[in-house]
Every structure is written in structure tokens, then in C-alpha cells.
């Protein structure tokens, strides 16, 4: 049986992918590739030290792995180098297939996240290793994580205007990854993955209001105003500016998609916005 390695397996998406994979393949054939193996003991699978920033450790970590899920690193600005390290090591270790988590329409998106993802896709194509690309849209949790703050402030703020967001839950994307990794005939495919339901931040604020019984309006701010608000909450200035710019990308349609490729792949509708809001309020 083929060994499947999962990078970033202790992260928010990685943990969910491991759980979904354990429902489809023998846990003995799964390996968590993580910076801190001691944090992976609860996953119920083998864990190996694996740090994108330490190329000398990567080849050893990939020994015996046939198929690799490369979950994109979370250090924006460092991803191309980190992913290059992993892809080079995978080639030397004899990995036979890489599945990569990219960004929805990475080749045309105006989001500042897109170039690094597109560069990684090009690295994969040039590597000679068979690959599959999962271009993930937004996680609904990216917005529902802000619900406690919105309730405290009495408003949900952003700079997305009337842009529509076709997000899905992390669990939806994790299930897609697990299905692809445990299926045949996936090599060379590029999946544009997004949620079935498209909503605006005004719609999200209305859903929060409905479920809480409180009047939580959506206040649309300019990009700079929103960045200032985020910075005032303690976010580093570059991150605050990046998040505000991504909202502007929403207003341009960067996170809207109505093809329903994700729900077709996982064989069920993606998680409704109302359900994600309910989970965030628990």
C-alpha cells in the first residue's frame, strides 16, 4: 500500500485532512510531516520532523513516501522558497505524486496571495513529478472567526463592498483533499474549488443578526480605514494591510465562483453559511 505524507498535519486544515484520510485509507499508511512531532501524537498516525525552512531535513523526512499532500506554508512572502525546498527534496526522495493546495484561480486572481501560489504551480510543472492542484477558495472560518469581535463592537466591518464570496468550510476542502489523495486518475488535474453558496459581508452580518437576535450591521470601510481598524486590534501592520487588500479583491470578484466543482468532488453540498455561523457562536 502506498504511503501518503501530509505536510502541516497539525495545522487547522491538516488535522482535518488526516481525519478524513483515516476514513478512507489505513492509518498505518499515513505520515504526518510536521515541525513538532510531539504536537502530532493525538493524530493517531506516524509523525516525522519536517520544516520547510530546513532543506537538509526534508529528504530524510520524505523517505518511503509515495504520495505527498503539500499544504501551502503560512508564511506569506516565504512560500516560493519553502515550497521549492519541499519539491526539490521530493524529487530526490523519489516521491511519485504531489497534491498541492493552491488558491482559487491563482492564474488570474488579483489577491496578493496569488503570485506565490502560481509560482509554486510552475515549480511543480517543472519538477517532473506528477502533480494535482487543488485551488482552494476562501475558508468560511476566515470570516466567522471575526464574529466575536463583531458582536463586541456592534458591527461587522470590512472593505469588500457588495462582492460575493463563494467560501466553504475547512472540512469541505479537507474532504476534497482526502478524496483526491485516495482516488485513481487524478494526476494532472487542476480543481477550482469553492462553496456552493455565494454571500456578501452584508449577508453575513444579517445571518449573525438573525442567529443572535442582535442588530449587527455591516459597515463597509475604505481599504486604508479597514487596515487601520485591524492594526488597532493588534495585527502587525503588513498583515492588516494584506487582509484589507484581500477584501478589496472580494469586491472585484476574486472569491466568487459558481461552478460547484467542490460539491461535485465531495458528493454533497458544501457547508451552508448559516451552519458555519452557528458553529462559530457555540
TrEMBL record:
<dbReference type="InterPro" id="IPR052718">
    <property type="entry name" value="NmrA-type_oxidoreductase"/>
</dbReference>
<protein>
    <submittedName>
        <fullName>SDR family oxidoreductase</fullName>
    </submittedName>
</protein>
<dbReference type="Pfam" id="PF13460">
    <property type="entry name" value="NAD_binding_10"/>
</dbReference>
<dbReference type="InterPro" id="IPR016040">
    <property type="entry name" value="NAD(P)-bd_dom"/>
</dbReference>
<feature type="domain" description="NAD(P)-binding">
    <location>
        <begin position="8"/>
        <end position="181"/>
    </location>
</feature>
<dbReference type="InterPro" id="IPR036291">
    <property type="entry name" value="NAD(P)-bd_dom_sf"/>
</dbReference>
Amino acid at each position: 500500500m502506498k504511503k501518503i505524507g501530509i505536510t502541516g498535519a497539525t495545522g487547522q486544515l491538516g488535522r482535518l485532512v488526516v481525519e478524513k484520510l483515516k476514513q478512507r485509507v489505513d492509518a498505518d499508511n499515513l505520515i504526518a510531516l510536521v515541525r513538532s512531532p510531539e504536537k502530532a501524537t493525538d493524530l493517531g498516525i506516524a509523525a516525522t520532523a519536517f520544516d520547510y525552512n530546513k532543506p537538509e531535513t526534508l529528504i530524510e523526512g520524505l523517505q518511503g513516501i509515495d504520495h505527498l499532500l503539500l499544504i501551502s506554508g503560512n508564511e506569506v512572502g516565504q512560500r516560493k522558497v519553502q515550497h521549492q525546498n519541499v519539491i526539490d527534496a521530493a524529487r530526490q526522495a523519489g516521491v511519485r505524486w504531489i497534491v498541492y493546495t493552491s488558491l482559487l484561480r491563482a492564474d488570474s486572481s488579483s489577491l496578493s496571495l496569488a503570485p506565490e501560489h502560481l509560482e509554486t504551480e510552475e515549480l511543480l510543472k517543472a519538477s517532473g513529478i506528477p502533480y494535482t492542484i487543488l485551488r482552494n477558495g476562501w475558508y468560511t472560518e476566515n470570516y466567522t472567526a471575526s464574529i466575536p469581535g463583531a458582536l463586541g463592537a456592534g458591527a461587522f466591518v470590512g472593505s469588500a463592498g457588495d462582492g460575493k464570496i463563494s467560501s466553504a468550510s475547512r472540512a469541505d476542502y479537507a474532504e476534497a483533499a482526502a478524496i483526491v489523495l485516495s482516488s485513481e486518475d487524478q494526476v494532472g488535474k487542476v480543481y477550482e474549488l469553492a462553496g456552493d453558496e455565494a454571500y456578501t459581508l452584508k449577508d453575513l452580518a444579517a445571518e449573525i443578526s438573525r442567529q443572535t437576535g442582535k442588530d449587527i450591521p455591516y459597515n463597509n470601510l475604505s481599504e486604508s480605514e479597514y487596515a487601520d481598524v485591524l492594526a488597532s486590534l493588534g495585527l502587525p501592520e503588513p498583515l492588516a494591510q494584506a487582509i484589507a487588500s484581500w477584501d478589496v479583491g472580494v469586491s472585484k470578484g476574486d472569491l466568487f465562483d459558481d461552478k460547484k466543482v467542490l460539491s461535485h468532488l465531495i458528493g454533497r453540498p458544501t457547508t451552508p453559511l448559516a451552519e458555519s455561523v452557528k458553529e462559530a457562536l457555540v
